[in-house]
Amino acid sequence: MNARSICLYGWYLLLPVQLHAASFDCTRAKTAIEKAICSDSRLSDLDARMGLAYVKAQKIAGEGDVVVRRDQRIWLDGLNDLCDGKQLVACLVQQETSRLAVLEATRPLEASAVTVFKIQDASKLYDFTVRLFAKPADPGDDTREGPGHVIVSAKGQSLPLQSIPMSNIFLSLDKNGRPLVNDAALYDWQGVINVGDFNFDGQQDFAIQNGNAGAYGGPSYDVYLYSADTKNFVLNKPLSELIAGSLGFFQVDATKKLLITLSKDGCCYHVTTHYAVIDNKPVPRFREIEDASKSDKYVYVTDQEMVNGHWTKGTTKREAQK
């Protein structure tokens, strides 16, 4: 069996923490899928063929390689649900055979499938070009979504500084069909590109909306921080996760050097949290809890501080409902 191809050509996308060791050493296989791959010659052969087809498909797709990677990830993520029980091997053979046929039928990305949005009003330092690989919008559509690339250039320069592949980009369009930028309106469409100094180091950072996987179906973002060491922008997972757990994009208080988020539990319990950013990670400092679930007449407001890793009991006051 060509076990190494499992890691290099696609299987690494499926639960990499669990499969990484098995892809090099089948004696350590633990999950049912891992054991099936390591023990069945048909799966071994399919794995080797799929590995080659996956690499070839990305080359053929060219700029559309993000589409190939996205579809491969979706397919892999679904295997655990599709294939289990006594028919595991037969199911895996069927699914791999079908996916192999799709990979082998990959064609170059068609120009008609690319929509280009040039964004020059989001930053004074940088211009952005969003190349979205999706069907053209229908008349009246005010959102667009699909895989693509975000290209970053110095202001007014044609030579890109960085190209960021995205498995999904979500754009909200204004009445003139232009993407919203630097927009964090609560419970509304937000900017595809939001720019600011998110870690308060004096350098401009930005975030790209990757969908609506946030709390209560709200927007989610990939946050990129400027790195003075590498002279480019680096994905920051802690800040990206902070947005995903909140009601939309965080507010930036440049004066106090704090990020502010809003979260809720149902209709009547809201929490506003203030974060410092230390070593490029959000650290909670203060929060205000508004609880209207205990009374029809009053809102109980509690202010708390984070001390030694724990929220203080805080002070609570009662305010009349508006």
Task: Write a concise keyword list for the protein shown above.
4-stranded antiparallel β-sheet; alpha+beta; 7-stranded antiparallel β-sheet; 322 residues; globular; 15 strands
What's the SSE blueprint?
Blueprint: H1 3-8, H2 16-22, H3 32-39, H4 41-61, H5 65-82, H6 88-104, E1 114-119, E2 126-133, E3 143-154, E4 160-172, E5 193-196, E6 205-211, E7 220-227, E8 232-236, H7 237-244, E9 251-253, E10 258-264, E11 269-278, E12 281-291, E13 298-307, E14 310-311, E15 315-320
Antiparallel strand pairs: 1-2, 2-3, 3-4, 5-6, 6-7, 7-8, 9-10, 10-11, 11-12, 12-13, 13-14, 13-15
Helix pairs in contact: 3-4, 4-5, 4-6, 5-6
The number of helices is 7
The SSE string, one letter per element, is: HHHHHHEEEEEEEEHEEEEEEE
Count of DSSP E strands?
15
The overall pLDDT, averaged over residues, is 87
Q: Percent helix among the residues?
A: 25-40%
Distance between the termini: 69 Å
Q: Indicate the overall shape.
A: globular
How is this structure best described in words?
With about 325 residues, the protein is of the alpha+beta class. The chain has three domains: about 5-105, no CATH class; about 110-250, no CATH class; about 250-320. The chain contains seven helices and 15 strands. Strands 9, 10, 11, 12, 13, 14 and 15 form a seven-stranded antiparallel β-sheet that branches. The chain has a four-stranded antiparallel β-sheet with strand order 1-2-3-4, with helices on one face. The longest helix has 21 residues, at about 40-60. Mean pLDDT is about 85; it is low at about 1-25.
